[in-house]
Amino acid sequence: MTAETPWDEWDHILKIDPDKELPDGVTYGDLCATGTDAIEVGGTMGITEEKMEAVVEACAEHDVPLYQEPSSPDVVIDNRALEGYLIPTVFNAGSPFWITGAHKEWVRIDNGLDWDRTATEAYIVMNPDADVATYTEADCDLDADDVAAYAEVAERMFGQEIVYVEYSGMLGDEDIVEAASGAVDDATLFYGGGIHDYDSAYSMAQYADVIVVGDLAHDEGVDAVRETVEAATDA
Ligand SMILES: CC(C)=CCC/C(C)=C/CC/C(C)=C/CC/C(C)=C/COP(=O)(O)OP(=O)(O)O
Ligand SMILES: O=P(O)(O)OC[C@@H](O)CO
Ligand SMILES: [Mg+2]
After folding, report:
1. If you measure from the C-alpha of residue 112 to the centroid of ligand 2, how many angstroms do you get, rounded to a whole number?
2. Closest listed residue to residue 170, CA positions, set 125, 231, 228
3. Binding of Mg(2+): at which residues (predicted)?
4. 156-to-22, 77, 91, 185 alpha-carbon distances in Å
5. pTM surpassing 0.95?
6. ipTM for the complex?
7. Which domain holds residue 47?
8. CATH number at residue 30
9. Within a domain: residue 177?
10. What is the per-residue pLDDT across 32-76, written as a single tens digit (0 to 9) for each?
């Protein structure tokens, strides 16, 4: 990456889903100006290169680092406005496709992959009702010690730069996030899912290095997102 591990300095990420609308009167520029440390562009369903490009272009002129988080190899875009690519691997996926298969395909079809701008995210998918759980056939029936063990394996055995406890669509269990936090050393712990106000943001930011806020931006807008930035900074 350009700076070595910029996420070491982050508290808050806003994840924008290119397949979802923004609330009336809200622009991508408004979302970039919420004080978030970075914008991650990604979603599970209905993602195309065109939708990805449109969001990246809309955010490009604003002063916030932009990352793409592709949900499959065919939606990776080549855009200089992107600081980099955060590439998921789902550690508790039911199919090896989401552990090494998609990655092998990406490297096979993409000539001249930009490794300097590519970083790894070890996902542990925890909400069985989320699209991402269905999509990857994830085994979400995990206790705190399972999650901690996955986090340690991700960092120590697979050299993952980021460990991502993903509750997409629901607020997670604090004890689980705390356990993951105790299991990683050098890796940066991301938490995402169900953050909707100051208190929910604070509760997860106590344990996670970085909290990720997604649907709130699409459902509520900028004031609600700003509250979560404030909590992430305070925690
Ligand atoms: C190797 C490459 C380039 C891609 C493969 C990457 C992998 C393993 C993707 C698996 C799925 C995944 C972790 C996608 C990341 C984005 C994500 C989790 C979005 C949030 O998903 P949901 O909230 O469930 O879905 P929607 O909000 O889109 O309904
Ligand atoms: O949309 P929410 O529930 O905020 O989840 C954020 C993010 O972790 C999704 O990948
Ligand atoms: Mg979502």
Report:
1. 31
2. 125
3. 17, 44
4. 39, 30, 13, 9
5. yes
6. 0.96
7. 6-234
8. 3.20.20.390
9. yes
10. 999 999 999 999 899 999 999 999 999 999 999 999 999 999 999
